[in-house]
Amino acid sequence: KLVTNDAEEDGAGVLRLSMGYFEPTVNEIAGLGSDRVLATFQLRSLDVEGPVGIELEVETTTGQASRLELDGQAVAELTTGLASAGELVAGRATVMGTIALEGRQDMSAQVDFSLRRWGDYATFTDEVFAIANDGDPGKEGVQVPVQADGSFVLAEVPTGRWDLHAHLSGYLEAWIPGLELFPAQVVEGAQLASPGSGDRPRMLGGDVTGYLEVDGSSTQDNEVTLADWDFVAAFFGLDVIGGSAGERADITGDDKVNIQDLSLVGANFRRRGPVPVYKAVATGDQRVQWVGPAGAVAAGETVEFNIIGDGLTGMRAYELELEYDPAQWQWVGIDIATGRELMSAERRDNNHLRVGATILGRDGDLRDLATLFRWRLQARRDGAGMPVLHRAIFVDAEYRAIAAAIDHNVQSTPLAFALQQNYPNPFNPETAIDFAVPTGIGAVRLEIFDALGQRVAVLWNGALAPGAHRLHWRGLDQQGRPVASGIYIYRLLSGNRSVAKRMVLAR
User: Fold this and answer.
1) Can you give the pTM of this predicted structure?
2) CA distance 116 to 314
3) pLDDT digit string (tens) for 189-213?
4) DSSP 3-state assignment of 309?
5) What distance in Å separates the CA atoms of residue 174 and residue 276, rounded to the nearest whole number?
6) How far apart are the first and last CA of the chain?
7) What is the pLDDT of residues 412-465, one digit of tens each?
8) CA distance 135 to 128
9) Furthest-apart CA pair in the chain: how many Å?
C-alpha cells in the first residue's frame, strides 16, 4: 500500500510525491481493487490557451524496485520512466444571476439566452451549453427557466470573453457585455439589463413587433417604435387568450392588455436593445469571390489575394473574417476599399483578420465597388497553404445582416464591370484608380475629364484580361503637363457600359 509522506513542486512544473511502504492486512490490500485515490493535487490555469498534458513518471534511482501488488500478486512492475499520460480538458463556468422584467411582480418566464464572442454580432453555437440549459428543445434558441424572483442558473458555459444576451417576447434584449469566464469559475450576482435602464438594471418592456420572416411570422426588431404602440393599442382593454396574437401585447403577463402595457411602450419609445440592432437575414443574393493565385506559390513570392463582391445593390456595409497560417505566410499589407464615401476598420489577432467598411451618410450603396479587399502576403515556404475566408456579412439600408455565399480559390475573375473610388482623394499629385472587368468584354477605356467636360488624359485604351486592375494618375495631361487643382471626372467605358466618378486634385 502506498501512502503519501511528502510532496513538493520543484518550480519547473514537476510535482514530486514521496511514498512509503508497509505490509498491509488482507482488508487493506483489498482496497487496491477499488477506485481508491492514491494522491490528490490542485492546479490553477494560467493566462494561456491550449491543452495541458499530465504525465505520471516512476523513479527507481535509489535502486529499489517499484511495483503494485494485489492479494500478494504483482499487478505491475514499474520501471523508471513514463507510467501514464493524459490531458486536462478545459473546464467550463457556471453563471448565476437575476433578470428583472419591467412591469412584472412575478418574473417567471422561459428566457432565450445566447452567447456572442465579445464585440461580435453573430450568435455562438455551443452544443454542450445548449444541452445543459435548454428547457424547451422544441423552441428555437436556448430556453432557460427564470424563477419568480428573477433568478437563473447557466451551466456548462464555455470559457472566454463573451457578450451574454437574453431575449424575451415583449422586451428589449438584455445583456452583459465582455463577461470573462475561466475554467471551473462560478459567477454569482450577474445582472442582465437593457441599455438605458439606469440604476435599476432591468429588461425594458415594449418591443412586441418587428419584421416579417419568409414564412410570414413576425420577429421582434429590438427597438420600440410606433409600430409597437399601434399593436398594443389594437388589443387595449381585451383579455388575452393563450396562443392568440394578442398574447404578445400582454407585456406584463397578467392576461390583460391594459394601460400598464401601453405605459411600457410609451416609457421606452425609441429605445433600442444592444446595438447595432441588426435584423438578421439568413440568406440573400450576395456573393463574394475569394480570388487567389492560379497555381502553387514559391518561397519568397509575394501574392495578392482579392475579394470581389456581387449583388451589392442596396448593401451599405460589409464585414469579412479571414484566417491564415503565420508559419507559412509573412504579412505584407492590405488595402481595404476606401474613398470619400467609405469608412473602414480592421482588427488583426494572431492568425485571424477581421475587416469592415461602411458607407458614410444615408445615401448610396456598394454596387460600384469592384474589389472589397486586397491582401498581400509573402510565402515563407514553397506551396504554402492558402488563406481562408470564413465569413462575409453585408448590411443593408434596414440594418439587416445578410450572410453572403463564398466562392473560394477562384482563379477567374469578377462578375461585375465596376469602378472604385480613387484613393487617396483628395490627392497630390498621384492617386490610384481600381476597377474590374468581367469575362467576355471587349476593349476598355479609362479616361479623365475636367469640370468643363474636356478630356484631359486617357489612362488606358485597349484589351484587358478579365479581373481586377489598378491604374495610377499623376495629375498630368496627355502631353505630360501638370494640370491645375480642381474637380476631375474619371470614366470607365466598354461598349455600351459606362461608369464614372469624381475626384479632387489639391496641389
Assistant:
1) 0.47
2) 27
3) 999 999 988 888 999 999 988 765 5
4) strand
5) 13
6) 90
7) 444 567 788 888 888 988 998 888 787 667 889 999 999 888 999 999 999 887
8) 14
9) 109
